[in-house]
Amino acid sequence: MRVSNWGKVTSGLFVCVLAGCGGGHGGGSGYGGGSTNPAPTVSFSQPGAAAAINFGQATTLTWTSAYTTSCTATTSTAAGGAFTGTQMTSGSATVVPTAAGSYTYTLSCTGTGGTKSASASLTVTPNVLNALAPAAGTAIASVGSTLDPTNGDQNPYGLVVAPATAGLITKGDLVVCNFNNASTTANPGGVQGTGTTIIGLHPAAGSKPYPIAQSPDLLGCNALTMLPDDSISASAWSAAQNPNPLVSASGVVGTPFSSDTFAGPWGEAYVAATATQPAAIYVSNAPGGTTNAGGTIDRITLDANNAQTAFTEILTGICSGGVAGSVFGPAGLTYDPASDTLYVVATSSNSVIALAGVSSIPKDGVVVNGQCAGATTPTPVPTFSGPSMASAKVVAHGAPLSTPLSAALLKNGDLVVGNADIGVTTASTTTNLLIEVSPVLPGAFVGQLQIDTGTPGAIFGIAATVDAAGNQIIYFNNDNNTAVMQLGPVTSSAGGPGGY
After folding, report:
1. Which end of the chain, N or C, is more open, meaning fewer C-beta atoms within 10 Å of its C-beta?
2. For residue 130, what is the enclosing H or E element?
3. Are 343 and 336 in contact (CB under 8 A)?
4. Burial of 163 (0-12, 13-18, 19+ CB in 10 A)
5. Omega prior to 228 cis, within 30 of 0
6. Strands, DSSP E only, in 162-204?
7. Are 440 and 131 within 8 A, CB to CB?
8. Which residues are CB-contacts of 76 (< 8 A; sequence separation ≥ 6)?
């Protein structure tokens, strides 16, 4: 009986194996019926729907695929950036479009189950300067005069937007220092490098300047940066002693950095503290006189109370020299916190230099080679040596830069740079330019805008911000009308203290 039962079971198993279980209509998933390979899938997670960037920016393409063994990329046109050829089955790539327009990025992935494609679209809008140009419906308007109301100082150089409300200053105010003293019969434009004042303007058309500070320690004030408490660090190029004063929000001029060694301070940038680095002020130096290689950049490290804890010269050898009114040197210091990069405008070589990871550059970490040694202006494109030479890179060089002096960071990560036009005497379509520089785009220059058709060499300090609606606004000092000008949406003055 047991043998018979076992035989039945064995026989049943044998039949099942031969015939195939499951009714015979499941199609290919069992033994002897063939096999079906899963179809591949591919999709982009970046950029998302309706993605857009400004010309001069980079974007990241990110994709995933499944059941694939190879992928090939194509771009609708070459101007969309380099995304072609063999790619990983899942990964990312950075593309830098070289023109405004609409682009499609396609990835075709193949596996044993076939081929599948996916696409991502990107719109590249015109550069910021073109979008703000008067032809685009935006005005270049005067915010207000920068003439000091107490002593008539003029020729506005330094310009910064106040980060907070404190003392005499309201958040968003425009803080300006004057490079020249008042006009006289003998000197209608004042004497270069003898201004001693800082004034403020509320950011509305028709504002009137209000005095913030006046002191011999501000002699030849040319550049400003502001700390979170509205303290003002000022470069006083002509001051014999204490040439980098710190002015409180209430206008008291102090000299906490008097033990530091400066030589013709010519640029300022404040860097806020992060979890890994303390706050700092960066100061560039442009010693005057016969053209030389004495230009430097210093770092003043600060504690939580804004007291100095260290002083470090991080860069040496950049070409500097000249006299008040035609100074060559490292200027226009601009900091990008997204990459810990300090940008330096090199006036003599018509260049913009990027110092990446600037907070980690040690003493004399970057040396600029061969500048000014027997050369006349313009000097050669900078090259670098020193233990941190890899941190330094020239991101823009040559025309349309013409002895550039000032710069500011735009909301898209580009820089706006202003030319000083030193030595240029005839107005033309290439004088008094603002120039948009992309730190990531090959060729760097993505736009330019002439903002004054008068006497060349009128544009000095630049500051950039965004309004409550997210619109880009650029402020700049214009010596041709001794005023702060605004490029972008303009509001009218509402009356009140200081010109509101």
Report:
1. N
2. helix 128-132
3. yes
4. middle
5. no
6. 174-180, 197-201
7. no
8. 103, 104, 105, 106
* Assigned token pair, 171: 């958040």
Place of tokens 């970490």: 365
Residue at token pair 């730190």: 439
- Rounded to 5 degrees, φ, ψ at 316 are -135, 165
Distance CA 58, CA 56 (A): 7
DSSP 8-state assignment for residue 166 = B
Joined together, the tokens standing for residue 292 give: 């030389």
d(CA 17, CA 31): 9
Q: Which amino acid is at 15?
A: V
182 contacts 151 by C-beta, under 8 angstroms: yes
Q: How far apart, in whole angstroms, are the C-alpha atoms of residue 121 and residue 119?
A: 7
Q: The tokens of 135 are what?
A: 């032809």
* pLDDT tens for each residue of the chain, 500 residues long: 444 444 444 444 333 333 444 444 444 444 444 558 899 999 999 998 889 988 888 899 999 999 999 999 999 999 999 999 999 999 999 999 988 899 999 999 999 999 999 999 999 988 888 888 776 555 689 999 999 999 999 999 999 999 999 999 999 999 999 999 999 999 999 999 999 999 999 999 999 999 999 999 999 999 999 999 999 999 999 998 899 999 999 999 999 999 999 999 999 999 999 999 999 999 999 998 776 778 999 999 999 999 999 999 999 999 999 999 999 999 999 999 999 999 999 999 999 999 999 999 999 999 999 788 665 678 889 999 999 999 999 999 999 999 999 999 999 899 999 999 999 999 999 999 999 999 988 778 999 999 999 999 999 999 999 998 888 999 999 999 999 999 987 655 433 333 33
- Does a cis peptide bond (omega within 30 degrees of 0) precede residue 400? yes
Residue whose pair of structure tokens reads 């047991």 in the numeric block? 2
**Radius of gyration of the chain, Cα coordinates, nearest whole angstrom:** 31
Residue 366 CA: distances (Å) to CA of 158, 267, 342, 383, 397:
26, 18, 13, 10, 19
Residue 397's alpha-carbon distances to 334, 402, 435, in angstroms, are 17, 10, 12
Ordered DSSP codes for 2-30: HHHHHHHHHHHHHHHHHH-SSTT-S-SSS
In which residue are the tokens 């000014």 written?
372
- Exposure on the CB side of residue 108, measured as CA atoms within 13 A: 7
Strand partners, 392: 355
Specify the length of the chain in residues: 500
